[in-house]
Amino acid sequence: MNPIRLAQQMKFIAEVDKLKQVVRESWLVDASRKETDAEHSWHITVMALLLSEYANHDGIDIFKVMKMLLIHDVVEIDAGDTFIYDKDHAKDQNNREQKAANRLFGLLPADQKDEFKVLWEEFEAMNTPEAMFARAIDSIQPLLLAYLNGGCSWRIHSISKSQVIETKKHMGNGSSELWKYTQELLDDAVKKGILKS
Amino acid sequence: MNPIRLAQQMKFIAEVDKLKQVVRESWLVDASRKETDAEHSWHITVMALLLSEYANHDGIDIFKVMKMLLIHDVVEIDAGDTFIYDKDHAKDQNNREQKAANRLFGLLPADQKDEFKVLWEEFEAMNTPEAMFARAIDSIQPLLLAYLNGGCSWRIHSISKSQVIETKKHMGNGSSELWKYTQELLDDAVKKGILKS
């Protein structure tokens, strides 16, 4: 055991505890409170495991998808959560997140820093089958919560179905089946009066 | 796409949202509040990925370890969190958790119900290299939090080092190196006055 290496790993593990304090715009199913980034990251990783059969690409590496989903939000410890419909805050998002990735993954030993950085960059670039599916899962989860909790975040931020479609249509690249399911969910949400048409 | 199958999967995904409401006896690193089971599950899954090199057994299937860690606490949605030092509450823990596993994993399509149940049972039985390492990670995480937050849960529940050693010594079966590291941490915690000797 190399004590310096283990100390670096433990430093990162202690630092990412802060992901439990980054609060998202998504409300829990029972609408009692918003969820944290750590809770979201857990939920989507379980979802990827369960829903892998709906990935567009056969032979997708689901272990890699899960690794991406576990760590992709870590940058929000420094950069904060950017609500997907907040176009102003999104302007410097890339820059903020790049700096955060360098600082946070930089706490790790070089080989693990590189591994995590590459996973994060692949997720962000969204041009491999794994990244496309991971993004689809990351996108469907808050929609599912909103549908089940009576549209909390949609109503608070006055979001319309066309806005949701516009920001989420990339889901079809990762999973046509989940995108089709999502559109049915959104139609039903409009019918129920919890999402503007 | 089989709509009944997808509906079962989505039902499970909605139900396990409740893991975000199961509060543990572990406090965050900054001691501001206790963590939830969903947050803990995320944290330990990241830790397993980072610390796999310290597993006693070569060639361990770390993907399987991560799957176990992601889902092993789901039973606490029905059975509640059992504080490891609470011997009275632990008496009917197995029975409560077995019922919970049947109900919760039973929401899934049969093949996935079986997969998750087998993973959970393997974790509980702790007699494969993967389960032993998963349990070591599940055990070191709250110790690390307690060490970093000034011993919140140790002080509140008046826990001594010998109690910690007694309940956590199984860690050595999964990782001698992490168990050695843990013992050094505990010695230091006693020295700092945050854990009774």
Describe the protein in words.
The structure is a homodimer of 197-residue chains. Chain A is mainly alpha-helical. Chain A has one domain (3-192): Hypothetical protein af1432. Helix content of chain A is 65%, strand content 4%. Chain A has helices at 3-15, 37-51, 62-71, 76-79, 87-90, 93-105, 110-125, 129-148, 152-156, 161-168, 171-174, 176-191; strands at residues 23-27, 34-36. In chain A, strands 1-2 form a two-stranded antiparallel sheet. In chain A, a hairpin with a 6-residue loop joins strand 1 (23-27) and strand 2. In chain A, helix 3 crosses helix 7 (110-125). Chain A is globular, with a radius of gyration of 17 Å. The relative contact order of chain A is 0.14. Chains A and B meet through helix 1, helix 2, helix 3, helix 8 and helix 12 of A and helix 1, helix 2, helix 3, helix 8 and helix 12 of B.
